């Protein structure tokens, strides 16, 4: 109960203040966002703020259901960070790289989707260089194959890597763009799926016109 | 007690603003009834945004002087953020931009304590000298001039210029018994915004001869002069209610606001054209971004401020 209240306050006061007042969002095609779980949101990743933005984007009532899928090795490093990541942010920890033999790396995700939760996934796997799109990891195609009925909504974020890039602790305000794409449908081939996901996010990126940042 | 020391004239003027909005909404309603086929979406959004802006503006003016100052500070912050989000910036300058943002609360703090001397030189002198120094410490020389120049231009327009509106609030009230500093703010902001609207309407109705087609193809001489006449007339009518200006000086104030407003508008147009964007943002549905709304004010605020300051304070 205490933790739930803390999480509610964290997101509705602090995160909303940072995301909506300090930064400010320009959202295109908001109507394409999922309105209920189970669902998967897939976005490009440049900043810790990405997760915060995605979590304020969905209606408040869905907050208890949102689970950002995040790297176990990074977020469970110290006890304090692990508590914060698991209890306040509500991450679903995922093992990066190869998992142990006989272990199903997606078991937790399957269970979360069965509970009608909304997962946030960053297929680039890490934040990388600010405002550059890395190669996508293929796990998302496996997931789509296992759960063809779950809508996967691609999303393009711009500006958050400028506001708080990797390795920086100081937030510098910028208006940020969030372009939501149409949900992808599973059509039977993993490589074609990855292709479509990537071109969908690239098409969203091409909708915007972004100033140089070098 | 009157709210935040606002005079009856001021309250009457604010009430009139709401009346004008009601009229606008009423006219829109009738237009829609008369011509249900036509799409009034853009106009509807515009009027709705006006409602929001007038409500927030009035609330800020009614609550207290410091809240009004914070309100204008917040406008400067939003405008600076919008500016820095649409122009190219250098990665190396993240921390420099952070310092530029810090200029906003400081500039409005000088206003709050009524320190005119620092208010007037803080950005043109001290920020102008400090930000390039901060850039040099980081050490990136590629595009140094562009970075330093664009950053300072942004600070001057969005913070220094706009903060002149706020300084009107802290001018001694006894000079303007009719409506105090708040009256001057309302006079300036109302005339600037109504000048935009009347230039637009005159241009739409009678516009023929383009005035600066390369920058703003929709601006015409007819719109400019029609707006100038309307604004000057309004300026003379409103002056005794809201300002210490007598009729001949009010005439000049009207000319300054109309001409300054036009220049501010086209300067931001030139900026947007240079960058290649249509709107500076999407904060105000139907209007665009905050810069699109306060573009004229970036010229009228300092011009009008120094005009009354020289004459009366």
In short:
The complex is a heterodimer of chains A (214) and B (313). With 214 residues, chain A is an alpha/beta fold.
Can you walk through the features of this model?
The complex is a heterodimer of chains A (214) and B (313). Chain A has a single domain (2-207), classed as Glycerol-3-phosphate (1)-acyltransferase (3-Layer(aba) Sandwich). Helix content of chain A is 39%, strand content 16%. Chain A has helices at 2-23, 49-57, 72-75, 79-89, 107-114, 139-146, 160-163, 190-207, and strands at 25-28, 39-43, 66-71, 92-94, 118-121, 152-158, 176-180. The longest helix of chain A has 22 residues, at 2-23. In chain B, helix 1 packs antiparallel against helix 2, helix 2 (41-63) packs across helix 3 (65-86) and helix 3 (65-86) runs antiparallel to helix 6 (144-169). In chain B, 43% of the residues are buried. Chain B has helices at 8-34, 41-63, 65-86, 94-112, 116-138, 144-169, 180-206, 221-242, 247-275, 290-294, 297-312. Chain B is built from eleven helices and no strands. Chain B has 313 residues and is mainly α. Chains A and B meet through loops of A and helix 3 and helix 4 of B.
What is the fold's blueprint, element by element?
The complex is a heterodimer of chains A (214) and B (313).
Chain A: H1 2-23, E1 25-28, E2 39-43, H2 49-57, E3 66-71, H3 72-75, H4 79-89, E4 92-94, H5 107-114, E5 118-121, H6 139-146, E6 152-158, H7 160-163, E7 176-180, H8 190-207
Parallel strand pairs in A: 1-7, 2-5, 2-6, 3-4, 3-5
Antiparallel strand pairs in A: 6-7
Helix pairs in contact in A: 1-2, 6-8
Chain B: H1 8-34, H2 41-63, H3 65-86, H4 94-112, H5 116-138, H6 144-169, H7 180-206, H8 221-242, H9 247-275, H10 290-294, H11 297-312
Helix pairs in contact in B: 1-2, 1-7, 2-3, 3-4, 3-6, 4-5, 4-6, 5-6, 6-7, 6-11, 7-8, 7-9, 7-11, 8-9, 9-11
Task: Choose one word for the global shape of chain B.
Answer: globular
> What is the oligomeric state here?
heterodimer
- What radius of gyration of chain A results from the CA coordinates? 16 Å
What's the mean pLDDT score of chain A?
A: 91
Q: Could you name the CATH topology of chain A?
A: Glycerol-3-phosphate (1)-acyltransferase
Order of SSEs of chain B, N→C? Answer: HHHHHHHHHHH
For the largest beta-sheet of chain A, the strand count, sense and barrel status come to:
7 strands, mixed
Q: What helical percentage do the residues of chain A reach?
A: 25-40%
